[in-house]
Amino acid sequence: MGLGNRILSLASTFLYALLSDRVVLIDQVENFASLMCEPFPNTTWTLPLDFPITNIGSFDGKHPSSYGNLVKTKKIRNDGVDDPFSGHPPPSFVYLHLTGGYTSEDTNFFCEPDQLVLREIHWLLVRSDEYFVPALFLNSIFMPVLTLMFPQKEAVFHHLCRYLFHPSNEVWGMITRYYESYLAPAGETLGIQIRVFDEKQSPFDVVLRQVINCTLTQKLLPGIDLSHPAAVADRRKTKAILITSLYSGYLQHIRTMYWEHPAAGGVLVSVHQPSHEGWQNTGNKTHDMKAWAEINLLGFADVLVTSSQSTFGYVGQALGGVKPWILLKPENGAVPEPACVRDISMEPCFHSVPPYVCKEKKNGDNSRVVPHVIHCIDTPWGIKLVNQTV
Ligand SMILES: *[C@@H]1O[C@H](CO)[C@@H](O)[C@H](O)[C@H]1NC(C)=O
Ligand SMILES: *[C@@H]1O[C@H](CO)[C@@H](O)[C@H](O)[C@H]1NC(C)=O
Ligand SMILES: *[C@@H]1O[C@H](CO)[C@@H](O)[C@H](O)[C@H]1NC(C)=O
């Protein structure tokens, strides 16, 4: 699981813990401690090494203690009976399997009667890889508290992120050195985050043309001036572009474009990219530290252009509090039209929306319409929080 997904799912789990009056402890996997500071002074959010359940990492949807299986085998009843444990004491823990590909029994977790049952369980072990907060807003038990906690619906992840995720000293050093050297001197900064999921559908030259078309059409970057090759630049107008990508080709092309020709209006454009790792190498400490530093640097940009469905971009835009321009997914190797659109909210999109399984269906409709939750632009089947009442 990439770093973006880990951050999204931890923030979601933290919010669920607040709503259900629990504390969060995180399993000490991979190099999380080299990336993040402890959020609360003189205490730790890591699970003690002598925690009696040692094989948490191997839990999956087939585990007999998963909530879905406990419901399926009727060890837990979620149909509103007085004794959901049928005369037995509640289990000492329940495993919540909240990753994409979960069963409809697992997704009962999001329903009201199930939350009443889960209150009786002391320990919940959660595995998740997504931002499931929008689904918590669909639950009428949580909704009143969420409304009080977050008057601005599209700032939920922004607040959670800034509250919980503080880069370690090493990563903070990387962020500030890069920022001071390359971005702070510029009058304006534009962050461009390019993530290619399918190189057949989105070949390099198509994505490059898309990025250039998007930034020029939306006037995020100045065009080039072909008629004044020796135009004198105006040193007061400086623009720094920060590119984050696994590849260096985008940087080279855009930098060359503004070297071969002057930018319109005398703007001085500089192009920067902290790393180009070639492939996503999650679990490698140096790679993850660079990725986390780059996410934070995106958060310092004045304007953002991000790739559809990229959780890396979701975290950057939330840290910055910026509504990005989204590079729509190219199809069949063509630049989409328009090349990019402005997002409606800076909230992340929840991709693995559970099928609507809660009992009180309205009018046989399969999707409950609630205020502040709508389908995403970058992932039409996903849902996200917005400020407007829908
Ligand atoms: C943390 O612990 C140290 C050493 O015990 C103490 O000096 C400090 O005041 C504590 N800080 C907080 C915020 O409790
Ligand atoms: C962007 O693409 C559209 C559609 O192909 C085209 O009409 C427009 O001229 C392009 N704009 C730029 C600045 O390249
Ligand atoms: C980890 O990633 C860095 C680049 O960030 C690379 O230089 C190093 O070789 C990688 N280490 C391993 C063990 O893959």
How do the helices and strands line up, and which of them pair or pack?
Layout: H1 3-19, H2 32-35, H3 67-72, E1 93-98, H4 104-107, H5 112-118, E2 123-128, H6 133-136, H7 143-149, H8 156-164, H9 169-183, E3 188-193, H10 204-217, E4 238-244, H11 249-260, E5 268-272, H12 285-298, E6 303-307, H13 311-320, E7 325-327, E8 340-342, E9 373-375, E10 383-385
The structure holds 2-acetamido-2-deoxy-beta-D-glucopyranose (3 copies).
Task: Tell me about this structure.
InterPro entries: XG_FTase. It is an enzyme of class 2 (transferase). Its EC number is 2.4.1.-. One of its GO terms (molecular function) is galactoside 2-alpha-L-fucosyltransferase activity. The protein has 390 residues and is α/β, with parallel strands linked by helices. It contains 13 helices and ten strands. The strands form three sheets. Strands 5-4-3-6-7-8 form a six-stranded mixed β-sheet, with helices on both faces. Strands 1-2 form a two-stranded parallel ribbon. Strand 9 and strand 10 form a beta hairpin. 39% of the residues are buried. It binds 2-acetamido-2-deoxy-beta-D-glucopyranose (3 copies). The site of one 2-acetamido-2-deoxy-beta-D-glucopyranose has 4 residues, from helix 10.
